[in-house]
Amino acid sequence: MTQHTTTTMGTASTAPAEYTVRRATSAADLAGARTVALHAVEVDLGYGYQPGWHWDLDRLVETYLDNPRQAMFVAAAPNNTVVATAAVRVGGPNCPPHPVELAQRYADRQTVAQLLRVATLPEHRRAGLARRLVAACQEFVRADGGYRVIYLHTNTVVPSAEPFWRSLPVVEIRDDRSHQSDPQFQTIHFELPLAATISRES
Q1: Pairing, β 71-76 against β 82-90
Q2: Which parts of the chain register pLDDT below 70?
Q3: pTM for the whole thing?
């Protein structure tokens, strides 16, 4: 499997208005984003850092700053600590590990924006940060002008991941759960239309 978006929710301790959502352009923001993303793969997803899947976390500047069509967004708490992330990369899912039908659907990779690294630290969940970050990513994709679709996949093993994505105006493309033998991976693939409106209400 490749990376999965992670949106496990919990109890928030800070009001949403006290957070700042911005594009990560500083070394501190990128380092904070890496910390949040690694927490997600280690704790929420449970399988830990995998170099073949999470290579972008070791090449953050090259991936999200040097390429103008890709971006990492972060949410920062009042003390400026990064507590949530979401990112955009060019291209859809790879085959393998994903089915050939998906590779064919997104064969024109330069027109496909993939939404990934959607993660929030436990103590800052239920504050609407994931929704705000996804909306920021969607705006970035729209502004690029060269993308036709936003693709994402999520692992339903993660508590609240599927309900979160279904609370957004996504379109289900494929449900792989009946085809996956490894219980660690229960994947659903979605598209988020560029023109869709994301409500700030959870």
Answers
A1: antiparallel
A2: 1-17, 48, 180-185, 201-202
A3: 0.87
